[in-house]
Prior knowledge:
mainly alpha, single chain, 2 domains
Amino acid sequence: MPLRSPGKAGEWLRWKGLFYILLVRYFWYIEMSSMPDDGQIAAKRVRLSREQRQRQLLDVAWRLAREEGTDALTLPRMAEEAGVTKPVIYDHFGTRNGLLTALYQDFDAQQTAVIDAALEAREPTLEGTARVIASSYVECVLVQGREIPGVLAGLAGSPELEAVKRDYQLVFIEKCRKALAPFTGQKGILQSGFWAMLGAADALSHAAATGEITVEQAQAELYEVIVAMVARSRG
Length: 235
């Protein structure tokens, strides 16, 4: 087999090397051109509405409170966990108390929705109504486990919490008054009776959440409180 001359062999190797260089550059160009630039990436990002962002931030806050306790709920930490800038967090909550108040309001909204649905589907008797109020209240507190006591402790004595909590309590009392009205005496249930019921509901629910009593014990005891309250109204 005849050998290539050194000149021709060198030229062939040079062209072969150039070909590989061009081939590599070609595939690099194809790969890079198929990658979106920063503008394209930004355009593809879904922009959350204010309500959606609020929901996202509250979910992050509940997770943090559940995993690390409410002491971890600082606004800078929230920004880090949610992957947003600090101004976004401050715009939504303003202060740490604002964040804790928003969590309590979120809990109230969930509790109200659960109780409303349960009352709508209840058996229309005193026993059925009392059972629904007792079981729904306890279950709603248990959904958030130990987070709610931590939120309340973090807001202890704050005007924000007192206003929000009292508004919710009054709404809940009126909801119970309306649901129990068909089974009460002519004068109805005294306001003091409902406040006593609400105090018992909170104490029993938190005792169940911390494991001091069982869920069934808390619900059964609250059921008895409600039935006894109605019985007293009948004289």
